[in-house]
Amino acid sequence: MGSKGKSDLSIPLTDLEDYGSRLRSIKNRMNRTKKTFESYKDDIGDGGVYDSLEDFESNWEDGREDIGQQLDQLADLSDAVVREFKKLDDDLAKEVNDAVKAGKGEGGKGGKGDGKGKGDGK
């Protein structure tokens, strides 16, 4: 335990729970660049600009696939970390509860003697 009763290990599970879905959202938006460019085609005006955007998008395709795979892996790892820490937390809570129940079943005062203090011969 750290100072003031705080745990030495602290993981922001609420942030991590959303992390995987945010990474997947980034991947989806990244994969829609062509549709995004197409949606602005008429607004751009100059055909040369749109042609440059198309060139960028086609050159970006290979790199985008690699990045997409890495985003998927990070999202899966994030989900696994959350899942495993929740499982660990549940397991530890069960162990503590079981230990407390077992301690109460043994008299609650160390588990030995009758609690009347007659063991010293006086």
Short recap of the structure:
With 122 residues, the protein is mostly helical. It is 73% helix and 0% strand.
What does this molecule look like?
The protein has 122 residues and is mostly helical. Helices cover 73% and strands 0% of the residues. Helix 1 runs antiparallel to helix 4 (47-105) and helix 2 packs across helix 4. It is rod-shaped, with a radius of gyration of 30 Å. The mean pLDDT is 81.
Secondary structure elements and pairings:
Elements: H1 13-31, H2 33-39, H3 41-44, H4 47-105
Helix pairs in contact: 1-4, 2-4
Give the overall shape, derived from the CA principal axes.
rod-shaped
Count of DSSP helices?
Answer: 4
Straight-line N-to-C gap:
42 Å
Total beta strand runs: 0
Mean pLDDT value: 81
* Helix-strand sequence: HHHH
Low-confidence parts, pLDDT < 50 over ≥5 residues?
none
**Main pleated sheet:** none
